[in-house]
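Notebook, p. 212. Picked up where the previous page left off. The plan for this session was modest: take the two constructs that came back from the sequencing core last week, fold each one, and keep the raw output in the notebook itself so nobody has to go hunting through shared drives later. Recording the first one now, exactly as returned: residue sequence, then the structure token string.
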Amino acid sequence: MFIMRPDTKAVLIAALTCLRVVAAAGDATDFGSAYTVPGTFPTSAFASYYNNPTATSAQVQPVVSDPVTHDIFPEYLTDPENFPKNDTVDPHLLPPQASSSQLLEFAIAQIKSVVTNPAIANDTCAQCIASLEVAKFVALAAPEQGPDLTIALCEYFNYSTTPSTCESEYQRNSIGAVFTQIMSFADVGGYDGQLICANQFSVCAVPPTAPLDLTGWFAKPKPNPLPPPKQPSGERLKVLHVSDVHIDPRYATGAEANCSDYLCCRTNVFNVDSPNATLLPAPRFGSYLCDTPLSLLTSVMQAIPALSGTEETGFDFSLFTGDITPHDPDNQYSRAFVEYSEIVVYEMFKRFLGPAPIYATLGNHDTYNQFQMSTYTIGGNLSTQYNWLYEHVSSMWLYEGWLPEEVTEFARTHYAAYTVKRTDGLRIISLDTNLWYTLNYFSYINATQPDPYGILRFLTDELQDAEDTGDRVWIIGHVLSGWSGTAAQLNPTNLFYQIVDRFSPHVIANIFYGHTHEDQLSIFYANNGTVMDAENALAVSWIAPSITPLTNINSGFRVYEVDSATFNIIDSHTWKSEVNEFPELDGQTQYGPTYTYEYSAREAYGQNITWGENDPLNATWWHLVTEQMEINSTLVQTFNTYQGKSSAMTAPCTGECIPAKICYIRSGSTSIAYQNCPAGYDSVQG
């Protein structure tokens, strides 16, 4: 510390006094024009210093004391070389940590503020994404409050007809826990959030299909020229295709079949116009707003062998494209109920459909969180939360003798996907296509990625192996990849389409789906469908009619005639049962439902197509059918009728519906359907 000498201080004071006197001697009204300050620091300004105040190499550092506290401020506080760079002494207060319940209250209030903010009053998409951001915060900070937040928002925005429905659908024991997981992991402020707001709430535009980089995806380029096609054997196999059983073990004969809330034909539902008296008693064999009672399932199982001529021989093999359980509210599902339903249906298949294998795939209803199947990459316990399903269903396929043990072992740890190589040269590849289902909320996590589950990598590798060994392939799944595009996500089905292009028509013979309950199909073309003509048509996906009559359709099944060497379909035969006749069967046991032959695809659509008797109903043939539809719209009406299995409830297809149906048939992926087709004409269920 540098302290001034008293005599030096006195001299300076005297000098300053003289200057003041000289200035005062002048004219009081005059102002000086210039003044040169002395070069030395006026050391009398402070009593003491930490350094020499007369030095010219550094700024003066006076010793300063606080007259209030009498504390002297330390030198380091202003030392140019060593002053504090980070204040860790003084308090920098934060608000108190909110409790879990306070976070919930805050989130609800913030979302209400978002949707009433005049700055974004006309931008419901921005409101939705901002609200998801708030929900994400709750999911991360207080996940136990996620279901309650979902219930509160359901009630506030009136997403359901009654508050009790919001409670039952979004509580933790139904879909609320899943919603919380999705909010936690999804990029809700980006593509994922926009897709959620588009598909689930219809307040955003559907985001564009993400650019697809196929660099390195395929091990080999598509052969050019293609290998010579396999020659037909002339021998025909009979292959059964059943789908969407939706058995309802809780079906109550006589309960309300015209209820106001899902699921009808249950004792716990009613019609709001007549809550105390049943308006339409549930028939013993089923109704249009109900799922399949056991009596209807046994009826169709008895009818199939008799109508297909397989009572003695059985089928060569069969396909089941998923959906075993009924359309229960989520809170009424349980693991035990799913497993019970699986056992009943598979045992019925085994008992009535013969000893040949039934190649099955999972449906979106075949889990106690309907539609939900998480990716293994989500991490922790969440990645294995549905393993019980894959393990149980795979074990059932082994138990029934439909798949060998090494195949089921793979399926147990790969979302129940598998490939089986038959001895006749056909390879069956089963995919859990629920992974790209728009109502599988886990499909909104990393939605820009075309294969977040790795299942399309598995498919591509299997197809490459099949190409190398000369096998033909059938692909089976549940949720379709195209048609109107409303069922599947954009990016996975876009990649799937490119895979089909790469391996068709020389490897992939056919693709099979279910899910819609309706009789439909889609065509895949070369080069992502840029030119849709007979020459570029590559593959067909067959979408099977359902056994369940839900909703407003008849019950049905299909049998294919298949060449035993090419595994091309030579003809398709469909049967149906008129559900509107079921009430007449009550009160007696002599007669059950009647299944009648509905149509042959070759006869129904091929009258004006020049085609050999043994030529397959392949993509080329089906494209020619669509060209005939453009010429003769009655063919579209025929297709529309068969779509609902000739249900009395099916409305006619007129006006814009006609080109829309043709467009759906030509759309093998969601992105192609969105790009080309009018919306709103995809279903006949009303």
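Okay, moving on. Second construct, recorded in the same format:
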Amino acid sequence: MKGLSGDLLRSTTVIKVLAFVFLAVAFFYFGKHWSDGSSQQPLFFDSRQNSSGPISSSAVSLSSNFNKTFDLSTVINDTNKQQAGEVSIPPPPAVTLSPPPPPPAVQHMGLLDENGVMKEDFAVGDYDPDVVENWPGVGNETDLSENNKVVKVKKFGLCPESMREYIPCLDNVEAIKKLNSTEKGEKFERHCPEKDKRLNCLVPAPRGYQTPIPWPRSRDEVWFSNVPHARLVEDKGGQNWITIDKDKFKFPGGGTQFIHGADQYLDQIEKMVPEIAFGRHTRVALDIGCGVASFGAYLLSRNVLTLSIAPKDVHENQIQFALERGVPAMVAAFATHRLMYPSQAFELIHCSRCRINWTRDDGILLLEVNRILRAGGYFVWAAQPVYKHEAALEEQWEEMVNLTTRLCWKLVKKEGYIAIWQKPLNNSCYLSREEGTQPPLCDPQDDPDNVWYVDLKACITGLPEEGYGANITTWPSRLHDPPERLQSIQLDAYISRKELFRAESRFWKEIIESYVRALHWKNFKLRNVLDMRAGFGGFAAALIENQLDCWVLNVVPVSGRNTLPIIYDRGLLGVMHDWCEPFDTYPRTYDLLHAHGLFSIERKRCNISTIMLEMDRLLRPGGRIYIRDSLAVMDELQEVGKAMGWHVSLRDTSEGPHASYRILTCDKRLLRA
């Protein structure tokens, strides 16, 4: 049985071997058959002797047709044709047409697309270094480094104690003495020192200076040692302006014409003309001859920003008291030049015993009021000619009524000691006056927003035919609505003005939110803020949005576009200024100075240290400076800041360490003579 099974097993194995051999031979035969008649034969074996040795060997080799493709139908047809005696004509080579290359992509540079709309993502593009180096004005500035050595700025010394309240352009005694006349108030205007006599030291604080009392307490009391002057108490003590209580000045809230308090006075004005609507229709006001600024201080609680102005006269410290209280104010005088504010800036202008003769010189001073008063705005006059019946005062009243009538102002209400006029909304009244009526309309070519060292003009500033200035929205929506006066601003863009406005607002909103979040700005005792290059006022608007309890004076430099009308249309305060000259305010009046891109522009016109010395004069001890500017100026700014005794710190912007901008933060220390 075992032998039988073994035989079967062996026979099965033999059968398998034979089958394998048969298949191998069959595959070889078919391979050789298909290779006949072809110049390329598939070689499965290479039986040639190895030239490197005497021993013959058979090695497996790859076919020469490996990795090639053939059209079998063509091969078969060619074989059949050859067998039939036909001449084989090779087919023409196949021509493969490659698709044309795509057209080069059009690369759009700049902020705007083809429709004039600002793009969210834009490319700046490459620059040509040769063009940049040879650009006019670039590369001509003096660098701080000489042969890779940093030039140190010599430390600035303290000014004499007599200069502790020094205002350079208003305290220039030599220039004032040389004036041909002072009868029109010329001595209260700007007379800046020559370059070689400019401030070159640090204005000291008075002895006993203390950190200012924070807002809102400062509205009612300030430290005596910070403004050590009792003259106003002696002159105005009976009018409820100001009193002394131990080591503090107290402000009861009264004024010459409202000794019972500003709140009651404001209620009376709004009751006389309900359309004034403080905080909604009336957002921005001007108080002329403001005293200690109680009128503006109490309007703040009604959402009204009031700029309080007064000259540096016998009551020389009234603006200093206003700023120490935390109320918007600056030194300014109605004299021979335009005020540094644009046309149609204020919804309400107030004069309470401001000691100005409005009818002199054909009413030239009231014509300046008319220029800066918004179309449809109100002029509030509280003075003796309104209510007293003395002959001289009655004559003054008649002159005032006559002048305002020729200005097309409407006497809306006269009650007690207050008279309120309203300016027209358009030019229809001006054009319907009798021929030859004085004062005339100003030349249409006259720019009513051109204010830097421009003489007063005895003419009526016409209103824009488009209604610009009169068609603003109410507060608070006007803070965010792009005003129609954008179209009158001289910018390179036209269609995109509103997009530029919104883009600036978004830019500062994000930055201030990051400052509040990362730098804890809400913990700072910010009250008086100066934005030294304000643009459209986006920085100030962002502070309001983030509910920081402060006010901002927006400065528009003369070296740039005049955006002041837009700032006022938004319900903010601003002023024109040239930072190559000193600013018209007292020392130690601001908690925060903000400068965005200022120095990289102004360094071409004036000395950086001159601007920074002025910043030191304006800043309160313990105050802060935020400078956001290009890397090119940061080394010099740091050196000058250190030379003034500031604590300086350089930070990256949100774009990171490779951005071309940096933020320089500076803290001012208390220095005394």
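Notes on construct two before I forget. The chain is about 30% helix and 15% strand.
Flagging for discussion at group meeting.
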